Amino acid sequence: xxxxxxxxxxxxxxxxxxxxxxxxxxxxxxxxxxxxxxxxxxxxxxxxxxxxxxxxxxxxxxxxxxxxxxxxxxxxxxxxxxxxxxxxxxxxxxxxxxxxxxxxxxxxxxxxxxxxxxxxxxxxxxxxxxxxxxxxxxxxxxxxxxxxxxxxxxxxxxxxxxxxxxxxxxxxxxxxxxxxxxxxxxxxxxxxxxxxxxxxxxx
Length: 203
Prior knowledge:
Blueprint: H1 4-21, H2 27-56, E1 63-66, E2 69-71, E3 74-76, E4 80-83, H3 84-113, H4 117-131, H5 134-139, H6 154-157, H7 161-177, H8 180-202
Antiparallel strand pairs: 1-4, 2-3
């Protein structure tokens, strides 16, 4: 998937922009946000359907070794050999599950507490993440399957219900408190410290 740091930065920009420019007392603003979220959802599910179709009819041959399957913190040590088509279809279903959970939580936050930032965040972040996923890069943009695009995709191993719920907790907290910018600064500082540590070791 797209790097988390980029998504955190986008989330921070969207939160700040919504606080500055969004007027919830203006019906035009309200329906623009709701309409944007609705059309974003239509685009995502249509794209997922297309990717699933392409994965089902792919001409790639070979097998993919899936070493573990994590669900709610439980690890299954069994290994599975899947065809390229079956593996990509499974990833499509995982993406569908992840996006459906995100959409449900977003709709609940808006309905329960009349929060608009989650609608704006998900209307942008969900299509962004899907378009930068290995699925889209291979089946939509026809990129070569090498490097980070070689299966199995390690980024997708983290797309479990448990890890996605933790990510959503962070998104909800940032949408309510608006602390995404501080998270971005912390991430950048951590990255700089890691670089300094690696250079010292080399010396």
